[in-house]
Structure formats: structure tokens, C-alpha cells
Amino acid sequence: MEAVVKVGEVLGAERLIRIVNAHISGISYRNIGDEGLEFLKSLAEKGARFSVPTTVNPAGMDLSKWKEMGVTEEFAIKQLEILDALRFMGAKLALTCTPYRYIKIRFGDHLAWSESSAVLYANSILGARTNRDGGPLALFEGLVGSAPLVGMHLSESRVPTVVYDLSNLRSECNMVSELGYFIGRAEKRGVPAIINLPKNFSEIKNLKLFLASIGTSSGIAMVLIQGISPEFKEDYLKGLDVVKPMKSDLVEIRESFFTKDGVVVLGCPHLSPEEIAELANKLKDSRVTKRMILFTSRDAAKLARNQIKLLQERGVDVFFDTCMVVTDLKNMGIKDVVVDSAKAAYYLQSQGYNVSLMSREEALEYACEGN
Ligand code: F3S
To answer: Are residues 34 and 115 in the same domain?
Structure first.
């Protein structure tokens, strides 16, 4: 409570607000190491318990197939200790960055979430209210059940600051990740309003990629999308600067990621059961000629069991509980990757991988080349 109050004081919050849910990122042993593990263990031993439903982000390995991922026994033991401490405190080990797909979040709910892609989804698509909290702060907020009443918790912060008119891109809906990355990089903060959407932009899979990519190149926590965001209002746009991205802006981003050949890695953010079903449907009559790996959650697996089986029969690897960024793909002998997410592209490139960024459709075509 002292930590939450102190953060609130620094940010100028008048008071705390009750939250209904917390979601904690940064729980991979690869990210938090022994210090993070010891900290979580000490909290659990002292009797700390979450006072609101709390979920957690992907861990550093698939909990059942970690050996297949080249994870060492030492790493696996430490990762399991981290998860044990979180479970002991009452967290649900969803191990996904898409908690909104599996728990009921209502319009106006106050949350304490620390996964940027999920924060953008909650604020922009669901009309829930959360800041982009750091992992430790979201953990503390989950324990005390409150968050400082600042930022995205306040109505006055949830109005547009700039307009992005996408009318020049109407037919360029195959670069949603690049578009999100472009807007984030240009704005860095604020609440962009997005109008005149390209076709297909409103499909959930594209919104997820778009929002995750904005969150990667900026500190933005919310966008207001015409026809999609429940808080979008035309009246708000009057007098704001209008930016009209060109196709060349997006091509420049795509071209900043290039590798000649690579393993196709999809699932950033985690694939939903619907996306898995779509992939299975697209690949059911194809031969997958490249190595292909998908990342999703166990909750998704329960809802798409048959489709995952079909994909595995096509030679596609499917891993749960983790993702391409928080695990270490090098342990699987991978150096070069093809992704459809600018978030994955950015973080994997910064980890030293050679990366190509494509649309999902292009990545699938690439995976089946030579058929
Ligand atoms: Fe999720 Fe990992 Fe991407 S946590 S948003 S799949 S970097």
C-alpha cells in the first residue's frame, strides 16, 4: 500500500480508486532473474494475497514442453518457483498477454494491467480504464485492490490529442503492424484518434497487431478508433491536427526489418482460438515447407484443440504459456525469423535475431512456398 500511495503522490493523484482486476507482466525468469524470484517468494512467505482477480503474462517456457524448447533444467526450476509464488498469492496462471479474451471486462471497469498490448486493447476496444503500469506496480495494485486515480482512470485523459486519417491507405490493410508502429513512433504519447479505416482493419486479429505495435514504439495507452472504440466521438476531433500516413511511411518501417530466410513465428500477441481456427483452415490443404511456430495460451488450446492437432499434423509447432520474446528462440537453434507483428520484430531484432516483417497472409504464403 505504501508503494501504491507513493506512486500516486508522485503522479499527483488525489486519491486511489478501487480496481476490479490486475494483470502482471514481466514474470519470465529470463527477465526478472534471481532478484525477482526472491522478491516474489518473500512476498508470498510474508502472507501477501491478491485482493482482486489477478492474471499473469507469458512465462519463459512452455510448462510441459520446455525440454523441446531447449530450456535448461536450472531455468525451468526457477521459472516454476516464480509461478508457484504467484499461484500461492492467488494469481490465475493464465500465462497470456491476451487476458481480455478469457475474462469478462466491462465498459468502465478500472484495472491495473501492465502488459502494454492488453492495456491498449482494454482502453481502446473495451472502454475499460487502466494505465500502462510497470509489472511490480500492477502486482502491488493487485494486492491492495486499488490504483492511483490518474492518467487513463480519469475521463479527461481519454480524449483525442491528434487525428490520424487513414484515407490514403484504404487498400493497404496488409500493413497494420507497420501502421501501429508508425503512429506510436510519431506521437510517443497522447490519445490518437483513428478515422477512415482501411478495409479489414476492424478484424480483431488486425486490431491486436495494430495496438501491440503502437505500444511498442510509444508510451501510448489508448487510441480512439472510429466505429470501434466505445468512447470515440466525432465532436472530439474538431480543431485537432490531422496526419495522413502514406503507404511509403509503412514501407519504410517494413524495410527496416529484413532477413532472407527465417522461421515463421506467429502469436504476438498470443493467437486467439479464432485465429488458430483460421490458420488451421488456411493450411488444411497445404504443405508447410518452412519451419513454423505458433504461440498461444492454454485457455486458447482448450477452445481450439482439434485445430491445433491439425496444425501439428502439418508440421507446425505450437507452444503454450510463453512467447517468442520472453523465451529464448536461440535455444531452439533459431537465428532468423519471419513475423507479422512489429512488436515481435522490434524486440527480436533488439535481441540480435535477423527479422523480416510481413502481413500474416504473406507469412503464410512464405511458409508454404514451393507447394
Ligand atoms: Fe504477448 Fe509476448 Fe508479444 S507477451 S504481446 S506475445 S511480446
So the answer is: yes
Q: What is the reported pLDDT for 297?
A: 98
Nearest residue by C-alpha to atom 1 in ligand 1: 269
Which of the listed residues 30, 32, 55, 270 should we mutate to test ligand 1's pocket, taking the one with most ligand atoms within 8 A of CB?
270
Output the residue whose Cα is nearest ligand 1's atom 3.
268
- Is residue 66 predicted with pLDDT exceeding 90? yes
What whole-number distance in Å separates Cα of residue 115 and Cα of residue 167? 30
* 105 phi/psi in degrees, rounded to 5: -115, 130
Q: Is 326 in the pocket of ligand 1 (CB under 6 A)?
A: yes
Residue nearest to atom 6 of ligand 1 (CA): 268
Q: Are residues 47 and 148 in the same domain?
A: yes
**Cα separations in angstroms, 175 against 202, 229, 264, 282, 308:** 13, 20, 17, 20, 26
Q: Within this chain, do residues 9 and 145 fall inside the same structural domain, yes or no?
A: yes
Overall number of domains in the chain: 3
- At 6-37, the pLDDT tens digits run 999 999 999 999 999 999 999 999 999 999 99
The residues, ordered by sequence, that sit 6+ positions from 64 with a Cβ below 8 Å of its Cβ are 320
Q: What is the CA(97)–ligand 1 centre distance, in A?
A: 6
Domain assignment present for residue 113? The answer is: yes
Q: Whose CA is nearest to atom 5 of ligand 1?
A: 269
Tell me whether residue 223 is in a domain.
yes
Please, are residues 124 and 213 in contact by the beta-carbon 8 Å criterion? no
Q: Give pTM, 2 decimals.
A: 0.97
Rounded to the nearest angstrom, the distance between the alpha carbon of 255 and the centre of ligand 1 is 22
Question: Looking at residue 172, what is its pLDDT?
Answer: 62
- What CATH number did the domain enclosing 112 receive? 3.30.499.10
- Between the two ends of the chain, the Cα-to-Cα distance in Å is 59
**How many whole angstroms from its chain centre is CA 103?**
16
Shared domain for 7 and 151, answered yes or no, is yes
CA 346 / ligand 1 centre spacing (Å): 11
269 Cβ inside 6 Å of ligand 1: yes
CA of 322 to the centre of ligand 1 (A): 8
pLDDT digit string, tens, across residues 83-102? 999 999 999 999 999 999 99
Domain boundaries, position 51:
2-155
Average pLDDT over residues 44-60: 98
